[in-house]
Amino acid sequence: MDFIKALFYGILEGITEWLPISSTGHLILLDELLPMKVSEEFMEMFNVVIQLGAILAVILLFFHKLNPFSPKKDAAQKKDTWSLWFKVVAAVLPSAVIGLLFDDWMDEHLYNHVVVAIALIVYGIAFIWVERRNRNEKCGIADVHAIDYPTAILIGCFQCLALIPGTSRSGATILGAIFLGVGRSAAAEFSFFLAIPTMLGASGLKAVKFVLDGAQMSGKEWGILAIGCVCAFLVSLAVIKALMEYVRRHSFSAFGVYRIVLGALVLGYYLLTR
Fold it and tell me: Which DSSP state fits 120?
């Protein structure tokens, strides 16, 4: 049964990692509704490392755009690609510093239903507000390569908000980018690219801590992790393509409404089951 449950975790990760609705929040809720018979230490590591599958989907889909060594690119295009990577690295620094300093504290104090529910509601309202605020304004940055260093770093600061479970890393960065005048498509792309070093670092840090704490994985747990990552990868391929098509024609307000409704349901569930 745990292998079947791992399929659901992988599918949920692949869907929610890229939509601005919080993958971590959904995985915490799924763990409450569909717990697996594994150690608590493994589950904490699994909920983060499963993101590796989702990241591989981004690398595959955008490999040409992100590859500065592509023989199909001329010198100017290779220079633009390197510049994009440097901006991504600059944007990662704020959350990397805060994450390293407060990772253990956040694991202990913030990973619970109430925090997730409040974050879902607050940022759901924020999405609706920002979309209405920008409804009649023309975006100043329509292409991801046009994002400058100050804007990239500010987007990285917004990503720090995602350290609170229930916020959504993609949600925080996309919301921040739109607020700063970046178009939806460019905001979504930059959020995807920013996820690569961010999530690789977070997964690596969590895996190293798991090992250093003396924890060991059973054969069953290795299987659960593999199933989760593969499912997250396959589902992410479809979700990323669908989201890029969606943002060309629609706003993110619908995701804001979804977050508010889900947050209210989570709070209701928590109050009724205390």
Answer: H
**What single string gives the DSSP state of each residue in 13-45?**
HHHHTTTTT-HHHHHHHHHHHS--SS-HHHHHH
Kindly report the number of other CB atoms within 10 A of residue 265's CB atom: 13
Coil vs helix vs strand at 262: helix
- Domains of the chain: which residue ranges? 2-273
What are φ and ψ of residue 20, in 5° steps? -80, 55
| Predicted model pTM | 0.85
How far is Cα 88 from Cα 37, in angstroms, rounded to an integer?
Answer: 38
Nearest Cα neighbor of 210 from 128, 136, 103 is 103
* Phi, psi at 141, each rounded to 5°: -125, 105
Tokens of 271: 């109050």
Q: What is the per-residue pLDDT across 1-26, written as a single tens digit (0 to 9) for each?
A: 899 999 999 999 999 989 998 887 78
DSSP string across 231-252 = HHHHHHHHHHHHHHHHHTT--S
The separation between CA 104 and the C-alpha centre of its own chain, rounded to angstroms, equals 19
| Tokens coding 274 | 């205390």
